[in-house]
Q: What sequence folds into this?
């Protein structure tokens, strides 16, 4: 682990949506073959960081590098070339409603490869088997539960055998067993195929199962980056509060900065 | 005082920005239609056919319904006046010309804007708010090429076709009144129809419907792809897209009629 190759790098990324300053200078490195978990409270900009990494939004200032390419300077073709090398699992699965499970999973193959129909069928079956949904090929997304949609979305994300996979809350809303299966899948993909994974989540069970390194985001900045052990025994009061899920602590649960009494009697 | 100017300025700026965005979308679509195939990225044929089926074949009934009754109404409305002049046979020419030049393309355009334009805005809007559009981009699919171009092509091809059929059905509506109510000889009715009807009437109507098709597709796709804010946002996009399409169709109708009128095409 001495020589670690940086595959994704964020350098001082700032992003503002309207009047909300979501990212205030995020710098982060992802190494090849590792599983990096980005965690943080709701609305702290986790998903925004992920969207920057996949090039779907561009930073106001700062830059994002993937495999040495600056994403802001790539044109659409260059970006598409990179996109074929990574898979994304969206929060809701983001399956196309008009296509059935098999068509959804096989979409990238049909578009970007010239594989024979039989091979595509076999690959779809294999990926669906991995997520435990073989035999569901002909169902429409509307007939699936939320968790099943997410699993089909995962099958689609890995169907092109990508080098990097991005997961946006892979276990949120799943029952513990399925969440465990998904976690195991993420670990397997890393250990067997050396796939790099970037996972956005706030499911602490999952974090401590899958992570090689953890980055904690708070108010648009990286609070701490470290290994699981470092986070378990963290001296930082904010990280500690988050890891243990304590209601009281330096991170204020109340979003409003106005004084409560003052606002009530206004 | 300043506030009035501010809000007027805001509206003007917003409208200007939207016009530029819609034109940019049009440019993108044309790029994918004409340049895309040379880069081995032609729009998928199955997608276009699927949309053509929805836009064209499945709209036939409602288009026929509207056209038939419009023809009947024009004949009934004009017959008494013409009868008092003893020129009831001219009902045939009046129905034919007003249907092919104006009512056929415009009413078909409005019906399709309500049926297809709304469904495009709602479908793309839903795809946008449920991350499906982003997922497409993430899989290196261009959403314009994959979602917008098939809908655009289907509309600019099928709306003129529907208009031609609507013209025929509308004339048939007038024929029903002329022959069965006004007791005009059927052969004479058809003869009069074709005596008044020129190629120009039909062609200008088809040119109009081509433009209307482009408007419906552009507006539906633009508002669909720019949807935000969940289910409420989808509803809003759908409404705005229909209203905008209606206004633009009427506006384009006026402009095109003026062009045909003043240039004597």
A:
């Amino acid at each position: 682990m001495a020589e670690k190759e940086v595959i994704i790098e964020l350098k001082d990324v700032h992003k503002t949506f309207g009047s909300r300053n979501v990212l205030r200078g995020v710098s982060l490195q992802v190494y090849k073959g590792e599983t990096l978990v980005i965690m943080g409270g709701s609305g702290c900009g986790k998903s925004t960081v992920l969207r920057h990494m996949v090039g779907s939004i561009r930073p106001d200032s700062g830059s994002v590098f993937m495999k040495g390419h600056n994403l802001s300077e790539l044109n659409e073709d260059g970006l598409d070339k990179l996109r074929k090398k990574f898979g994304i699992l969206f929060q809701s699965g983001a399956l196309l409603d008009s296509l059935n499970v098999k068509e959804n999973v096989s979409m990238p193959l049909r578009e970007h490869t010239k594989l024979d129909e039989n091979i595509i069928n076999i690959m779809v079956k294999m990926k669906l088997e991995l997520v435990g949904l073989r035999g569901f090929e002909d169902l429409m997304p509307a007939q699936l539960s939320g968790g099943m949609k997410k699993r089909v979305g995962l099958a689609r994300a890995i169907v092109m055998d990508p080098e990097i996979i991005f997961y946006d809350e892979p276990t949120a809303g799943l029952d513990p067993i399925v969440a465990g299966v998904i976690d195991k899948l993420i670990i397997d993909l890393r250990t067997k195929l050396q796939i790099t994974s970037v996972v956005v989540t706030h499911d602490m069970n999952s974090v401590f199962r899958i992570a090689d390194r953890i980055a904690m985001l708070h108010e648009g900045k990286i609070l701490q980056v470290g290994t699981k052990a470092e986070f378990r025994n963290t001296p930082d009061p904010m990280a500690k509060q988050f890891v243990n899920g304590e209601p009281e602590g330096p991170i204020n649960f109340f979003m409003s900065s106005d004084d409560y009494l003052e606002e009530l009697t206004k | 005082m300043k506030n009035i100017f501010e809000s007027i300025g805001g509206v003007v700026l917003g409208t200007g920005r939207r016009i530029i965005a819609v034109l940019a979308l049009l440019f993108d679509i044309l790029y994918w239609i004409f340049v895309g195939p040379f880069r081995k990225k032609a729009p998928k044929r199955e997608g276009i056919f699927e949309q053509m089926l929805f836009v064209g074949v499945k709209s036939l009934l409602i288009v026929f319904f509207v056209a038939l009754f419009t023809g009947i109404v024009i004949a009934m409305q004009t017959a008494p006046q013409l009868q008092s002049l003893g020129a009831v046979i001219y009902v045939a020419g009046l129905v034919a010309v007003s249907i092919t030049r104006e009512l056929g393309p415009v009413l078909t355009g409005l019906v399709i804007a309500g049926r297809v334009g709304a469904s495009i805005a709602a479908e793309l809007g839903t795809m946008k708010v449920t991350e499906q559009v982003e997922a497409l981009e993430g899989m290196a699919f261009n959403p314009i090429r994959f979602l917008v171009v098939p809908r655009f092509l289907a509309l600019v091809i099928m709306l003129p076709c529907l208009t031609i059929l609507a013209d025929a059905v509308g004339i048939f509506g007038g024929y029903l009144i002329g022959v069965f109510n006004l007791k005009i000889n059927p052969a004479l009715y058809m003869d009069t129809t074709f005596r008044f009807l020129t190629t120009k009437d039909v062609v200008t109507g088809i040119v109009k419907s081509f433009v209307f098709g482009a408007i419906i597709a552009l507006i539906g796709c633009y508002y669909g792809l720019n949807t935000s804010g969940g289910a409420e946002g989808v509803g809003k996009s759908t409404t705005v897209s229909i209203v905008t399409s209606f206004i633009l169709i009427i506006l384009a109708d006026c402009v095109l009629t003026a062009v045909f009128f003043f240039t004597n095409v």
Observations:
- Chain A has a mean pLDDT of 84.
- The radius of gyration of chain A is 20 Å.
- Chain A touches chain B at residues 54, 56, 76, 79-81, 83-84, 88, 90-92, 94-97, 107-108, 111-112, 153, 156 (CB under 8 Å).
